[in-house]
Each structure stands twice: as structure tokens, then as C-alpha cells.
Structure of Prokaryotic membrane lipoprotein lipid attachment site profile:
Amino acid sequence: MRRHALAAVGAVLATAGLAGCGGGEVTPAQDEYAGRAQTENPTAQPAATAGSEVPTASATPTGGPYADGEYTVSEAYGVVDDVVEEDSIDVTLSLQGGYITGVSVTGHALTGTSKNYMAGFVEEIDDAVVGRSIEDAHVTALAGASKTSAAFNDAVDAIAAQAAEAY
């Protein structure tokens, strides 16, 4: 009987000891995202494998022809984990004959992470769209900046609509 009592006490102590190993919520490093609950990213795309072609976004048909000129649009974006974080970009496109002859993007980042993504995006955007038709100027996660790319695509559509209306 005494042996069963000791076994029961041992089991209770072992369970209590292991229960202390479970923990609260794990938080990321000390940056602007510290303490936020981790959520699954429903828009994540699988990485391209060697030899595979990276998909590009298709342009939203806005209709042409387009008036030549310089057009500027601002786009805000950036809700993360139900917390409003307004990053924004100012996009200026120069158009001639429906083709982009110049591009300027100015980023307004709320966080250090956003600033890094925007800087990479701004570095690569010129090579990605200059010389392309306004209807074929959408980009997909350029420099890893998926949200900046989506905002840029919205700006391209708005500029295309303005240029078509001005024609």
C-alpha cells in the first residue's frame, strides 16, 4: 500500500514538474514586431525552383489609348495582424505612346522593415518597368516587397485610367 502511495505521489510531482515546462506565448526579437502573435501568411507564394519561370502579375485591362505626359499617384497600404500601419508610396510615371519612359517611386515607411523592402523595390523598379506598356507594367514581389509591389500595381492602374481619360 505504501508503495502505491509513493508511486502516486511521484506521478503527481512529475506531472506538476512537466507542467511548468509549458510556457506562454513566444515573441520575436526586439524589433517593431516584438510581442505580436505569429499568424500564418495566407498570401505566401512557393519559392521558385531553379529553372522555373517566376510568375508575373497580369495587368488589369484599363483600355487605351493613353495621353502622353507625367502622372503621379499616391498609394497607402500595410495592415498587419489587425494593426493599422500606413506605409505609402508616391509613384510618378512618364508615358509616351502608352509606354513608360520614366518612373520614380518615393517610399514613406512606418517601420524599419518596411523601409528596407521599399529601398530594394526603388532600386529595381526602373529596370522592371521602363520600356514596357502601361498595361504590362505590373510587378510581383519585386525585391521581395510584395505589399509595395501590390501598391505600385494599384498606382499603375490609376495612372493608366488617368492617361486614358486625358486622351
Observations:
- The helical segments are 2-19, 112-129, 146-166.
- The beta strands are 69-77, 87-96, 99-108.
- The mean pLDDT is 76.
